[in-house]
Amino acid sequence: MTRPSSLWWQEAIIYQVYPRSYLDTNGDGVGDLNGITDRLDYIAQLGVDIVWISPFFKSPMKDFGYDIADYCDVDPMFGTLDDFDRLIAKAHSVGVKIMIDQVMSHCSERHPWFVESRSSRDNPKADWFVWADPKPDGNPPNNWLSVFGGSAWQWDARRKQYYMHNFLTSQPDLNFHNPEVQQAMLDSLRFWLRRGVDGVRLDAVTFHFHDKALRDNPVATVRDTSTVTDANPYGMQAHVYDKCRPENVPFLRRVREVLDEFNAVSIGEVGADDALAFMAEYTAGGDKLHMAYSFNLLTEDSSARHIRTQVEDFKRRVKDGWASWSVGNHDVPRVATRWGKGKDPRAFGKVALAMQLSLKGTPTLYQGDELAFTEADVPYELIQDPYGITFWPEFKGRDGCRTPIAWTDGPNGGFTTGTPWLPVAPEHIAAAASVQETDVDSPLNFARRMIAWRRTMPQLTRGDIEFLDAPEPVLAFRRTLAGERSVLCLFNLGGSDVTFTLPQARGAAKLPQPGLPGDVVDGVVTLPACGGWLGYEA
Ligand code: NOJ
């Protein structure tokens, strides 16, 4: 069974690069576009298909690029438009596609649109942002909260009004009810598509629209702890009016029309109380997003039951949509620590990667996860993330997963000749890419083998998924595809040896897979701590 070539992205692997922390080529301590270009051979050798680059556009960097001041230019810190053109050309020459990060929901307070909008109540951009009068007692117009803490409303003395911000006060929310705003976003998308980008990651894709009547959010009946921790009151509301509004669906269709003109693909970041429902809705029908990911597997819960529930739940609701399963990114503690606490990080990194690559959906890997890097410990004095500063020490922010990549075991891990913007973790330097290169059993070499092997297994890239009952911490599922032998996938996510008895009446043969520890004798698979087993069923 072959799949239409237009669905190539369903078989692909996405690799996220956080440009500040990839490789610095000019010694200013911050990674840059030329650094990514320099490492494209490494990326191609890893075997991934698409590189999603987090924002590199002009920005005051209050949220490290997720606060954009010019959608159509590169921040000098990262390089120039010419550097970007060279990056694209090199990527395409080594067979890698490039996906940029479009932050449509909000921009920087320094963006000329906001500077103009806040200057008066009747300028041409007056209605480009979400402005509201105070209540008679001076309070904000409603109870909406910011993900990064406090009210979602910030007072502006010039207009004597509040403006809305879902994140930092320096990230004003664009008013998508205004057709000019929608058009401006589609235009900036076209700007990059014309330069040759192959896809787009849509940041905060559920946040585009707000309720025009500004109704209060009701109290949450079930507190969502996947988007924020329980130290954050944001989870106490049901977010039905500040985001996830129905008007977003027709807007996403407009985005898709533009993408289709260029044969480009999209992945949306879905943050919602019931994120799986929006992942399903936004990717259904082939006329909105291609793929979506949520925070459902980015939580602290590493139990096999949790993973199974999320994937099964999505499967039940999805119809013809498509998930990208993400277990790590620049917003959450690294998976080798978050899920691998108390276990050997190398071993856990491998089993987590193998598990992720075996699930049904397009995997999105985060830079450094192929090296099984652990969460770095960044002391309070060095914390950069404003989110972490607000919620310290209950939530230490996102710097621990954003520290620079250690490429070598030399000074600063070979990341920079200057002072890195965040310290390079000593434990990463000891496990640097160059060190792993020469070790056949390293996480890096395992990742390369696993990715290459996955390509040869249509069951994994195109098949269906069906879970088997297994005692915790074993995650067991079967990948099936008409005309192919089904593949049994067993993963021990725990720190001790376990056994799993293969389903009766089905034989099994271990596949020549890339080196996870695990073996079968008389129908019983032994899985050592962090082991895995991938086998054909008879
Ligand atoms: C989601 C991004 O992944 C995160 O890093 C950012 O802070 C918020 N959106 C706001 O843009």
From TrEMBL:
<dbReference type="InterPro" id="IPR045857">
    <property type="entry name" value="O16G_dom_2"/>
</dbReference>
<feature type="domain" description="Glycosyl hydrolase family 13 catalytic">
    <location>
        <begin position="16"/>
        <end position="402"/>
    </location>
</feature>
<comment type="similarity">
    <text>Belongs to the glycosyl hydrolase 13 family.</text>
</comment>
<protein>
    <submittedName>
        <fullName>Alpha-glucosidase</fullName>
    </submittedName>
</protein>
<dbReference type="InterPro" id="IPR013780">
    <property type="entry name" value="Glyco_hydro_b"/>
</dbReference>
<dbReference type="GO" id="GO:0004556">
    <property type="term" value="F:alpha-amylase activity"/>
</dbReference>
<keyword id="KW-0326">Glycosidase</keyword>
<dbReference type="Pfam" id="PF00128">
    <property type="entry name" value="Alpha-amylase"/>
</dbReference>
<dbReference type="GO" id="GO:0009313">
    <property type="term" value="P:oligosaccharide catabolic process"/>
</dbReference>
<keyword id="KW-0378">Hydrolase</keyword>
<dbReference type="InterPro" id="IPR006047">
    <property type="entry name" value="GH13_cat_dom"/>
</dbReference>
<dbReference type="InterPro" id="IPR017853">
    <property type="entry name" value="GH"/>
</dbReference>
